[in-house]
Structure formats: C-alpha cells, structure tokens
Specification:
Number of strands: 0
Order of helices and strands: HHH
Shape: elongated
Distance between the termini: 36 Å
C-alpha cells in the first residue's frame, strides 16, 4: 500500500511542479500575468513549488525502503522521472494545444 501512496503523492507533486515551471507561460499567454515583473513570476512559481515539496518529500520518505517503503533511491528517482514525463506530456497537450510532442 505504501508503494501506491508513494506513486499517488509523486503524481500530485509533479502536477504542482509542472504548473510551477510552465504554468506561468500559459498565464502570460492568457494575459493574466503578462505585465508582471520577472521577480513576481519567480515568487509566484515558488509559491506553487512549495506545494510540490509538500507532496514530494512525504512521497520519498514513505516510499524509501530504509523507511519501510517499497522502493530503493534509484527506483524512486526513475518513478519520479517517468511520472514527470507523463504529467508534462498531458499538461502540454491539455493547456498548450498548439504544441505537439515530436
């Protein structure tokens, strides 16, 4: 069960991470934050990234085998990277419909 919790937490974490890293581009495109200074956009992204860490850190602690979890450190990283690619692909196709995955 810890393995499933770990993966679910990593998915949520990566949704926040992807929005923190790339969501500001969509918000700029929509003219929501188009006149914000770069420092304001950075603070906005950091605020979102805080929620990423609120899910990422527990996922790693729960999932790590030395804490009673199911995964080694390498496995956690590979799972996280696969989730990152899947979430990013979905994010891109959903929010940036004019972008294609080549």
């Amino acid at each position: 069960m810890q393995g499933i919790y770990t993966i679910l937490l990593l998915i949520v974490s990566n949704i926040f991470m992807t929005f923190a890293w790339y969501g500001h581009l969509k918000l700029q495109e929509m003219k929501v934050i188009s006149n914000w200074p770069l420092f304001g956009v950075i603070l906005f992204s950091w605020g979102i990234a805080l929620f990423e860490y609120c899910f990422q850190v527990p996922a790693n602690r729960i999932g790590f085998h030395e804490n009673g979890g199911s995964f080694s450190l390498v496995q956690l990283k590979v799972i996280q990277e696969v989730i990152t690619l899947v979430v990013f692909a979905g994010f891109t196709l959903f929010l940036f419909q004019n972008e294609t995955l080549h």
